[in-house]
């Protein structure tokens, strides 16, 4: 599932290539057809991301809400585009570029009130100007493991399984430590790592936790698990101990029991 850095990255890319003019909106697959008619040939004013959600603002207060979920993906094509291939839920065709959407968890036209209801269910987004104090107030009294809280979108919007593992490894914190056990200093380290790592992900369009020195090559060239310090690895890159993979918050996490003892 794409994490928050990816939705913010997509929002910027799609805003730059599609906004400012009318779009032809269709649903080759058919499941979005009635909603596509509500926004087709209207001007796209803005594309906004919050957490793992995307909002395409069309004139007339009509908003296409997209949540990619586990299987959703976008594909960019030149305009005019070729005939769609596969199950294309939504096609956004602009003057210069076309964007195809496949397999999202959510894709529907909503209004401003429905958008606000979605935002009200989400916690602060580190990439949308969230303040440290806002997140601290959500965590400090929770008697749940920090590994669970980081995945809770009502606590922090946009953090997913990879960010969770890499952030906790970077600061040497056990995913089993309770939120209520964190003092303000420990939380400050957690927050700074979260913001910095998500901003790096936004910059490169992919999660990267290692430094260029660690990787031995430019960060832009990294692919696969070479981008990570712990996620997907069998041995710890710091102490060479086996990586543990318990379920925390109903998702498998990668962590080093020796290095992450705080």
Describe this structure in words.
- The protein is of the alpha+beta class and 262 residues long.
- It has helices spanning 4-18, 33-39, 112-120, 132-139, 146-149, 161-171, 184-204, 212-215; strands at residues 24-26, 44-50, 53-58, 62-67, 73-78, 88-93, 97-102, 106-110, 247-248, 251-252.
- A hairpin with a 2-residue loop joins strand 9 and strand 10 (251-252).
- The radius of gyration is 20 Å and the shape is globular.
Number of helices: 8
Strand order of the largest sheet: 1-6-7-5
Low-confidence segments, given as residue ranges, are none
Please provide the count of β strands: 10
Distinctive features:
262 residues; alpha+beta; 4-stranded antiparallel beta sheet; 8 helices; 30% helix
């Amino acid at each position: 599932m794409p994490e928050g850095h990816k939705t913010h990255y997509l929002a910027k890319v799609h805003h730059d290539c599609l906004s400012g003019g009318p779009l032809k909106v269709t649903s080759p697959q058919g499941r979005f057809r009635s909603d596509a008619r509500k926004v087709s040939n209207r001007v796209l004013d803005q594309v906004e991301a919050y957490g793992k959600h995307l909002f395409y603002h069309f004139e007339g207060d009509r908003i296409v809400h997209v949540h990619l979920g586990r299987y959703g993906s976008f594909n960019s094509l030149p305009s005019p585009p070729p005939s769609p291939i596969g199950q294309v839920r939504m096609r956004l065709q602009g003057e210069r570029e076309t964007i195809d959407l496949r397999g999202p968890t959510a894709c529907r036209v909503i209004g401003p009130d429905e958008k606000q209801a979605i935002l009200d269910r989400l916690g602060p987004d580190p990439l949308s100007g969230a303040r440290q104090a806002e997140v601290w107030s959500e965590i400090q009294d929770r008697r749940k493991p920090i590994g669970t809280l980081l995945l809770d979108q009502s606590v922090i919007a946009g953090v997913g399984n990879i960010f969770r593992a890499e952030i906790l490894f970077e600061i040497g914190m056990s995913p089993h430590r309770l939120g209520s056990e964190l003092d303000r200093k420990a939380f400050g380290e957690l927050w700074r790592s979260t913001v910095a790592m998500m901003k790096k992900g936004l910059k490169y369009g992919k999660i990267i936790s290692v430094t260029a020195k660690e990787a031995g090559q430019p960060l832009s060239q990294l692919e696969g698990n070479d981008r990570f310090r712990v996620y997907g690895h069998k041995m710890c890159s710091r102490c060479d101990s086996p990586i543990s993979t318990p379920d925390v918050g109903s998702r498998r996490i990668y962590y080093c029991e020796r290095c992450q003892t705080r």
